[in-house]
Design a protein that fits this description.
This protein has about 625 residues and is α+β, with helices and mostly antiparallel strands. The protein contains 14 helices and 39 strands. It has a nine-stranded mixed β-sheet, with helices on both faces. Strands 26-27-28-29-39-35-34-32-33 form a nine-stranded antiparallel β-sheet. Strands 22, 23, 30, 31, 36, 37 and 38 form a seven-stranded antiparallel β-sheet that branches.
Length: about 625
């Protein structure tokens, strides 16, 4: 029996489906039963539809189509997908649904439940390419070596008309209904889905963690220039850096970074290039693949709904993220009907080649890049242990919140890890604390970077005392941005970490993660936790979070810290510094192979922001 097909949406990308349906009908593979379209058909559409019924109401069209259709195709705006998909499935038909399948993860889960007994294919065209299957085979067979990560770069450009063509274009919501029409979730969705499929991480629980930088160069709600970095439960890092404001538009490319070989998949052209050797492939469209599967269930679907769960995790993260941040107008150029971001093409390439975010690359037009500069200390100041740290760190409003090499403690710098005593070696800087003698000269160690995220903490002779795996992430939050610092320390032999506090100096158990603030008037610096207010009540006590509120009338700002289970080390009067104390009043002993993780999150905000449960104590007396 020839499958009968109803198409919802004959304009936009739906026109591609209408043309394909006409070609497949001429080949005897299907029969067009009707078209649902809310706008009048143009001349081409009327010719392709012929005398088949047309209605703006899919509920009316399905019975009028001459009985139950075998396949319903939904190629309409994102926010209409759910209702139309329910109607198709309710009529007992199989479904071909354009991407993204839904605008929310909850709707996706509900659609998956409703689809029991029917076949639902999602319109990820690239997954029908033999080039994808060939690349997947190369990954699984080990021909590329170990996969260091997957990068997807996209540099397209859209004219003004792209955002004026429909009320939902470039919107996050429309009349209170989620739309999520951004660069990541719509035009470059294919790249994300393909990267996840190549990694074998398509399930809804296959994404371990996810970072987003959502930006917009245009006056729209959604993102048009963005970076996504996620880690799958297989441990693979995927970075997607894209823009719709490219200087020179180019086809998107997916790059697999192997330890032996490099593969580039030009997924819109079905081209695969491995170490410079190119292969070209054809592809099956989602509709052809669905027809083949219905004729022979042994033919696998290219993009079944259940295998879009990981992609929907990305959509949900974008939907629930803070609104995209405008790009500084100084970096924008009007190019006819286009808007270009200066330097964006190069930044997109760097991000996907280095598996880094825009913020980590310190691109000047990214608020996170301007907010946190990951400096490298090469100065040999007296008593300084050179070590990687973050400085200058700024709020989104441009207020610098870190100090470096201050006169009172030249070995302090920015935000970083610092350890005052590791097997007797000073990896903090300054002098060593000795009970009964105070601070005296001692051995200063060396911190060496041995990889992008790996450091060795060594004695003065270069012997490794501790290995550190470090991860620094940045993300936009409501009203500001958040820095997340994670360090994991391991030792090959028994290693003892001390602080002056663990050796008897009261209130001085510093050592671990440490943030040196700029020189501020102590009267304007307020520290608060759920259990206390002020340095005396906060220093040396663990708390789930700590607030730093700076009430400088010229540039007020707030930082909210959370994460560590260790006591907080706090200084306000003598100087301004905040840290987590690994060895507050007793040494920390790491046995061979034992790990010690330190995670601290700091959300920076311009202005005074006091947690609601502290408002009865604000302002401090």
């Amino acid at each position: 029996m020839t499958p009968r097909v109803v198409l919802a949406g004959a304009a936009g990308y739906g026109r591609f489906h209408l043309r394909e349906i006409a070609a497949l009908e001429a080949a005897g593979r299907l029969e067009l039963a009707g078209v649902c379209e809310v706008e009048p058909l143009d001349a081409e559409a009327r010719r392709l539809v012929g005398d088949r019924p047309v209605s703006a109401d899919l509920g009316e069209l399905l019975p009028a189509a001459g009985g139950c259709p075998v396949i319903g195709i939904v190629s309409t705006p994102i926010h209409t997908h759910v209702d139309l998909a329910h109607r198709v499935l309710g009529a007992g038909a199989h479904l071909l649904l354009e991407k993204p399948p839904t605008a929310t993860l909850e709707d996706w889960r509900d659609l998956l439940r409703r689809s029991t007994g029917r076949v639902v294919q999602v319109g990820f065209q690239g997954l029908g390419s033999p080039a994808v299957r060939r690349l997947a085979h190369l990954i699984r067979s080990g021909a590329l070596g170990a996969v260091r990560g997957i990068g997807v770069r996209g540099t397209w450009s859209r004219e003004d008309s792209y955002y004026t063509r429909a009320p939902w274009a470039g919107r996050r919501t429309l009349d209170g209904v989620p739309v999520v029409d951004g660069a990541l979730t719509n035009p470059f969705a294919h790249g994300i889905a393909t990267a996840l499929a190549l990694d074998g991480s398509t399930g809804v629980d296959d994404v371990a963690d996810l970072e987003l930088e959502l930006l917009r160069a245009r006056d729209i709600e959604a993102d048009d220039t963005s970076c996504l970095r996620l880690r799958t439960r297989r441990g693979t890092t995927v970075v997607v850096a894209v823009t719709l404001c490219a200087e020179v538009p180019a086809d998107p490319v997916l790059v697999v970074h192997g330890t032996r070989k490099r593969a580039e998949l030009h997924y819109t052209r079905h081209r695969l290039v491995v170490d410079g050797v190119e292969e070209r492939f054809g592809h099956d469209t989602p509709l052809v693949n669905l027809l083949d599967h219905l004729a022979d269930p042994a033919v696998p679907l290219n993009a079944p709904l259940a295998d879009t769960g990981a992609f929907m995790r990305v959509v949900e993260a974008v939907r629930t993220a803070p609104d995209p941040v405008p790009v500084d107008p100084a970096w924008l150029r009007r190019n006819g009907n286009r808007v270009d971001v200066d330097g964006v093409d190069h930044a997109v390439t760097r991000a996907t080649e280095g598996l880094r975010t825009f913020g980590e690359l310190e691109v000047p037009w990214s608020p996170l890049g301007a907010a946190a500069h990951h400096g490298r200390d090469t100065a040999r100041l007296p008593l300084v242990v050179p070590r990687p740290a973050l400085h200058p760190v700024r709020t989104l409003g441009g207020v610098v919140v870190t100090g470096e090499h201050p006169a009172d403690h030249p070995w302090h710098r920015g935000i970083g890890l610092a350890l005052p005593d590791v097997n007797g070696v000073n990896l903090w800087g300054g002098r060593n604390y000795v009970p009964g003698r105070g601070y005296v000269p001692g051995e200063l160690g060396v911190v060496r970077e041995v990889g992008p995220d790996e450091l060795h903490w060594c004695d003065s002779a270069g012997t490794v005392l501790l290995a550190e795996r470090r991860r620094v992430r940045r993300r936009l939050v409501e009203g500001g941005w958040e820095l997340e610092w994670t360090s994991v320390l391991t030792a090959d032999a028994e290693t003892v970490l001390h602080s002056p506090g663990s050796k008897g100096r009261a209130g001085a158990g510093y050592g671990g993660w440490f943030w040196r603030l700029p020189d501020l008037d102590p009267a304007t610096v307020h520290v608060l936790t759920p259990g206390g207010t002020g340095e005396e009540q906060v220093n040396g006590r663990p708390a789930p979070w700590l607030a730093v509120v700076v009430t400088d009338p010229r540039r007020p700002w707030t930082a909210l810290l959370s994460g560590p289970t260790d006591p907080w080390f706090v200084r306000v009067g003598q100087y301004q510094g905040i840290g987590s104390a690994l060895a507050w009043d007793r040494p920390l002993v790491l046995g061979p192979g034992r790990r010690r993780e330190i995670t601290v999150r700091v959300a920076f905000h311009d202005g005074v922001r006091v947690p609601d449960d502290l408002r009865p104590r604000w302002p401090p007396s």
